[in-house]
Amino acid sequence: MSFARLVLVVMAKDLRAELRTKEALNASLAFAVVILVLLSFVIESDDVPQKALGNLLWLVFAFAGTLVLNRSFAREVPNDCLDALVAAPISGAALFLGKALASFLLVLAMELVALPVFGIFYNVRWAQQFWPLMLVTVLGTWGVTVIGTIFSALTVNIRLREVMLPMLTYPMLLPALLGAMELTGDLVTGTPIGPDTVTWLKLLVGFDVLFTAASVTLIEFILVG
Amino acid sequence: MRDKILYVLGALAVLVLARNLYVIAGLPQEAAQGAIFKIIFFHVPAAWTAIVAAITALTMSVQFLRTKDFKYDAAAVAVTEVGLAFLAANLVTGSIWARVIWGIWWTWDVRLTSALVCWLLYAGYLMLRHAIEEPTQRATFAAVFSILAFLDVPIVYFSIRWFRTQHPAPVFLSSNGSFPADWTRVLLSNWLGLLLLAIVMTAIRLRQEESQREIDSLRRAAHAM
Amino acid sequence: MNAVAVEGVWKFYGDFPALRDVNLEAASGACLALIGRNGAGKTTLLRAIAGFSKTGKGVIKILGTSPREPATRRNIGFIGHGIAVYDELSARENLTLYARLYGLPDPRQTAIEWLERTGLERVRDGLVREFSRGMRQRLAVARAFLHKPSVLLLDEPFTALDDRAIAVLQSLLRDSLAEGRTIVLSTHQLREALELASDVALLVRGQVAFHGPCTPEMVADPGLVYRRHGEG
Description:
The structure holds 3 protein chains of 3 kinds.
Chain A: H1 3-21, H2 23-42, H3 50-74, H4 81-87, H5 92-122, H6 130-154, H7 161-188, H8 198-223
Chain B: H1 2-26, H2 40-67, H3 70-102, H4 110-131, H5 135-166, H6 181-224
Helix pairs in contact in B: 1-6, 2-3, 2-5, 2-6, 3-4, 3-6, 4-5
Chain C: E1 4-13, E2 16-26, E3 31-36, H1 42-50, E4 57-62, H2 70-73, E5 76-79, H3 91-101, H4 107-117, H5 133-145, E6 151-155, H6 163-178, E7 182-186, H7 190-196, E8 199-204, E9 207-213, H8 216-220, H9 224-229
Parallel strand pairs in C: 3-7, 3-8, 5-6, 6-7
Antiparallel strand pairs in C: 1-2, 1-4, 8-9
Helix pairs in contact in C: 3-4, 5-6
């Protein structure tokens, strides 16, 4: 079985399992909406520039996304399913990428629902720079997903897993979140990506490439100690 | 033999630092900032020492993954803890400096912010270790985390710096004029003193870690009886 | 070439040696029963043989190569303490998944076949979380056998099985041995295991205290090996 097909098999398995119960997805969506509501009490939309609201959107994405990312390797713990995956003739890299892709799609789905809600709550016409915004969302989400997935593997066996994962990932994600925030802040207010802000785009791409490569390399050590 | 070396190094560290304190007290005050400027002699080398610790931790982590020898794991945790202590010293001296100059306890200047994020990153390393019971898994996962954290450090610094060029804020924790040559010598000499101190602290922590491992394995052996 | 070869293996948890200089082999077509008290290292040894963890010292070979080689992994079937099937998927979805992961030519058909073989075809679209314990165990057995592995590694497979599941497993194991496959199983249920075993190894505190053929004496009196070579 080719590498790509194995990745898709793992991805399909995770997606099917999650979509059957939708527990993490619903929790994530609900959490996103709740944060958006809470933030409205902190921010009076007239005072705060719309750009800052765009920045805050990524806080929402990061926090709500963690609920999905936590599940990634955690779902392999009951019944010792991880053993069977490690025993199967599938490389750690294929396993990792399959899971990361599944989580990526789920988090992206949550974000695509949260985005219009954000637009409605805060009266932001977010679709002005639609395709650049989608690009930034995809790049930023992939960065969050890769780190979230590798850390999900690192925290699979430990106490207080749900608490540890956010504590460990957010410092690591700072550069990607910073880049995504800055870009989204601009795009959501209709400002296209300019010569100043294109650096953030390069940062995002660099972050994604670096940590995807690092994770794919290191995953074997995590799976077979 | 090892003890003797440590005593000598410790004595040397104390001598160097004591001599430096005497020299620093004798230096003229800096024009714009006054006496508090001299905190730079500890503030900057503390950060440099932390960087050396981070590089050492990376090397030890990679070596552990390659050889599975626990002495590398012990070295990694020892050097990370010492590095965290020195980074904390950097943060505290920076805070004191800010308080004296500007009357505020904190500022989000590039270097301080980067130092804080890196401190959180490596504190996560210690938290992860505390949460994993089984020694081999703990060492392996911690090593992977340490490698990922080190990869992130330059990106964190760069992203915060780029953020600050986009959103400038006063940078005051630096010298306004040029740094006199003989002051540079004192700075480097103080760095030497701090490095010696760091080596002694790491060696002590290393010994404690090895004793702890021995106790753990004895405890396991006792349970198995 | 032995199907399973364990040479000079040590396994450490930190500094504690869970396995100490273990030397064992199982020839093709043999059934090796691994017995020993709790904490003797049976699970540790089986997991090391299966390639789940790296050993501190020594070499483990399955069919002449490392258990981690992809080609070798295709030839290993493992049943551990957990059933390794997904609660949120159906029995059929679980088996199809593993058939795909093992690169079998017709995953769906293989899944159906094995559901029939383990008596689960009537509940094939039921979610595993609704299954009884015995049904889950039978599904685990199907999962481990469906890619027709040459080497089967089973960690206390008879524990907590109901009668039907025991019968299914024993029949499958006998068929496998008849087909020339190799089995290494650890067990507390001495009677069921010794009936199938051709060889027996006793682990005491991480070391092999006894390793030899399984005699009719042992089958008649399962505690014999413990008394002769174990401690108390």
